[in-house]
Amino acid sequence: MGLTPIAILLGLFVLNVPIALAISMAALSFFVLGGGLPVTAFIQKMAATTESFPLLAVPFFICAGTIMNHAGITRRLLGFADALVGHTVGGLAQANVVLSALMGGLSASANADAAMQAKMLGSEMVRRGYSPGFSAAVCTCSSVITPIIPPGIGLILYGFLADVSVGRLFIAGVLPGLLITLALMAVVRLRARQRGYRPTRPERAPPRELGKAFVEALGALSIIAFILIGIRQGIFTPTEAGAMTVVYATIIGLLVHRELTLSAFPAIIVETVLATAVVMLIICAASAFGFYMTWEQIPSKGAALLLSLTESPLILLLLINLLLLFIGMLIEGTAALILLTPILVPAVTQLGIDPLHFGIVMVVNLTIGGVTPPVGTLMFTSCSVLNVTVGDFLREAWPFFLALLAVLMLLVLVPQTVTALPDLLMGS
């Protein structure tokens, strides 16, 4: 059978066939044309994936994020972000970046964050005199932060595929997420000064107002601490943390903020099911495709090929990053993560690279791919909402690209930026 399913997969991607369908068809071709296995094994491989306990975290965290959106938490977080940075140059754009960092513990999805930011803040930025291209660039690039700060769906998937502790991955994502936040804020400040974009408030928020905004947002802000402390203390597993977060968010929405109503739950369930179905269908299809790759020994052959190029862990990591940046431009990040993790992790572990370190680097790298053409789902989400052309977006977004790549290289060259926090809190 060889590489025929891979060729079919790439061909279907070029034809713009939906990701889940493309992976399914490519995997099915192995069972139909290979001749060695019954076609029913294709269905069995897809269905067996759904029995994974760690993957239960995906619908739980999606549900928690949906509940929080209905509970008015996003509005409170925006108020807190504005109180923190609204007095700075380009205050609304700065609040946009800060809100993405605060949303890391809520939506767990870069696409969800990009859509929300563009609708809520992007349009307001344009109304206040920011160029549409700049507004789209800020909304798109800041959404890269969301899946890195826990809980991120990409971190859950990588932990499942690479057999790495999801709890350690969650903690490892905190510092890289904050570094991306600071880098993007620096770019916003520089560009806002050049363009003359004004603050949203005349002066720094007084302590009383800042304290009030913090208290109003505390229900949301406490969720990240709730997750990390619970995992660190062994109170619950990352999967159980998802279920506990649903309960926690429901209590906050019903009893604390009192904006969540029982009548909203049917819509919440529908949104959760639809979002989960998209992710799980890709995972199930990729599992069947992964069986083909294992059968043909493609991961081990790919690892051997990579190791034949260099024996230096650093050079190998740099080469893989170049490969991931290229692939991220062509394939949606979740699909690329699922397909490439089984191939790349054996290679990096053989050279002594910590799979925890590599996981954060890989998720950051592929998420950056979402802001670059031609596939860039994050880019197209923001541009479509704000009616911005790709050309206008790229003219405004290149300084943000450079900032994201600078942080990525820092994570590659200094592994401690990833591993220090989980080693400190959970031991090596």
Give a description of the structure.
- The protein is mostly helical.
- It has one domain (54-426).
- The protein is 76% helix and 0% strand.
- It has helices spanning 4-14, 19-34, 40-49, 57-70, 73-85, 91-103, 110-127, 132-142, 153-162, 166-172, 174-195, 207-232, 238-256, 265-295, 298-309, 313-328, 333-350, 355-368, 377-386, 390-413, 416-426.
- Helix 7 packs antiparallel against helix 8 (132-142).
- The mean pLDDT is 82.
Describe the main β-sheet briefly: none
Strand content: under 5%
Number of strands: 0
- Total count of domains: 1
Distance between the termini: 42 Å
Instruction: Specify the structural class.
Output: mainly alpha
- Helix residue percentage: over 70%
Query: How many helices?
Result: 21
List the helices and strands and how they pair.
Elements: H1 4-14, H2 19-34, H3 40-49, H4 57-70, H5 73-85, H6 91-103, H7 110-127, H8 132-142, H9 153-162, H10 166-172, H11 174-195, H12 207-232, H13 238-256, H14 265-295, H15 298-309, H16 313-328, H17 333-350, H18 355-368, H19 377-386, H20 390-413, H21 416-426
